[in-house]
């Protein structure tokens, strides 16, 4: 019997699960705007950027995003399990393998939130980790989780804007960003900052929701994202609007090739893309050479 590749199997499992859940919780999902193929959030000329499907002044987006994550922080980890049906844990394990933790090397975990990526790095034998996030509430949850796991010794917490990092040039060996880039106003600035703080030979890795590559997944994935997730957000976290934004932010995020081109524009070399679960998520990697 022909063996089905690992992530194709998970895409099939996800399709079945999502179909089951959406059949129970939706009647129809209506029309969903097409996936954005542009470098979302970089429209300097208009002075506006996306906040989900809304156009807002560029200076306002950070405040709005900060409010969203302050609201979702207490239930963030539970909702990650619900939103991805638990598959985000598998994606993060694969991401950690790609990060390739090494003793004596330092990880900068951008938009690190409640700490999953930093924790995996430390548990896998990596050196120090800097858990950075613009939102103090998310870092507070991360600090509590680190303390309960005995991981505070090699972990530094940094409240910082990923667009203007308070770190020296060439100061870290790896930069990671998991499910955070789509919430940034100026994504190209974030990519340039990630490259700036990397040592020569260092690598940047981004795990993010992306463009579905399995056609059968698209209709049920849209129904899940735009009908089920907001309802679950209301039921579990008492916050429909924040989870509506999170679903919309995925739709507005650049597709795989557009993000790869942005990384090259930021100066990264050897840029590569690895799709996970039929393109629902993807890992983008690039080197500073």
Automatic annotation (TrEMBL):
Catalytic activity annotation: a 2-methoxy-6-(all-trans-polyprenyl)benzene-1,4-diol + S-adenosyl-L-methionine = a 5-methoxy-2-methyl-3-(all-trans-polyprenyl)benzene-1,4-diol + S-adenosyl-L-homocysteine + H(+); a 2-demethylmenaquinol + S-adenosyl-L-methionine = a menaquinol + S-adenosyl-L-homocysteine + H(+)
Pathway assigned in UniProt: Cofactor biosynthesis; ubiquinone biosynthesis; Quinol/quinone metabolism; menaquinone biosynthesis; menaquinol from 1,4-dihydroxy-2-naphthoate: step 2/2
Residue ranges the record marks as coiled coil: none
PROSITE patterns listed in its UniProt record: SAM_MT_UBIE (PS51608), UBIE_1 (PS01183)
One example GO MF annotation: 2-methoxy-6-polyprenyl-1,4-benzoquinol methyltransferase activity
Annotated TM spans: none
Enzyme class per UniProt: transferase
Pfam family, one: Ubie_methyltran
The EC number(s) this enzyme carries: 2.1.1.163, 2.1.1.201
Chaperone as UniProt keyword: no
Swiss-Prot/TrEMBL GO biological process terms: aerobic respiration; menaquinone biosynthetic process; methylation
Binding site for S-adenosyl-L-methionine: 114, 133, 161-162
Domain of life: Bacteria
Keyword ATP-binding: no
UniProt keyword list: Menaquinone biosynthesis, Methyltransferase, S-adenosyl-L-methionine, Transferase, Ubiquinone biosynthesis
NCBIfam families reported for this sequence: MenG_MenH_UbiE
HAMAP family the UniProt entry points to: MenG_UbiE_methyltr
Family: Belongs to the class I-like SAM-binding methyltransferase superfamily. MenG/UbiE family.
Function text: Methyltransferase required for the conversion of demethylmenaquinol (DMKH2) to menaquinol (MKH2) and the conversion of 2-polyprenyl-6-methoxy-1,4-benzoquinol (DDMQH2) to 2-polyprenyl-3-methyl-6-methoxy-1,4-benzoquinol (DMQH2).
Identification of the protein by name: Ubiquinone/menaquinone biosynthesis C-methyltransferase UbiE
The organism of origin for this protein: Granulibacter bethesdensis
Lineage: Bacteria, Pseudomonadati, Pseudomonadota, Alphaproteobacteria, Acetobacterales
């Amino acid at each position: 019997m022909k063996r089905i590749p690992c992530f194709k199997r998970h895409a099939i499992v996800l399709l079945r699960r999502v179909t089951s859940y959406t059949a129970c919780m939706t009647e129809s999902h209506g029309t969903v705007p097409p996936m954005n193929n542009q470098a979302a959030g970089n429209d300097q000329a208009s002075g506006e950027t996306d906040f989900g499907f809304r156009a807002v002044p560029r200076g306002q987006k950070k405040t709005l995003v900060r409010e969203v994550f302050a609201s979702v922080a207490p239930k963030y980890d539970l909702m990650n399990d619900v939103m991805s049906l638990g598959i985000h844990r598998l994606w993060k394990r694969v991401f950690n393998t790609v990060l390739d933790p090494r003793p004596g090397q330092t990880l900068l975990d951008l938009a690190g939130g409640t700490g999953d990526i930093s924790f995996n790095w430390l548990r896998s034998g990596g050196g120090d980790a800097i858990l950075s996030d613009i939102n103090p509430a998310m870092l507070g949850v991360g600090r509590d989780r680190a303390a309960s796991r005995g991981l505070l010794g090699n972990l530094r917490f940094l409240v910082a804007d990923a667009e203007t990092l308070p770190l020296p040039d060439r100061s870290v060996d790896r930069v990671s960003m998991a499910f955070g880039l789509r919430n940034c106003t100026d994504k190209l600035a974030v990519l340039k900052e990630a490259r700036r703080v990397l040592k020569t030979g260092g690598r940047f890795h981004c795990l993010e929701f992306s463009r579905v590559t399995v056609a059968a997944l698209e209709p049920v994935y849209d129904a899940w994202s735009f009908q089920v997730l907001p309802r679950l957000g209301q039921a579990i976290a008492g916050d429909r609007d924040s989870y509506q934004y999170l679903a919309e932010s995925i739709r507005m995020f650049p597709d795989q090739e557009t993000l790869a081109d942005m990384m090259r524009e930021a100066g990264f070399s050897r840029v590569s893309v690895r799709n996970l679960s039929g393109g629902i998520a993807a890992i983008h990697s690039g080197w500073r050479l």
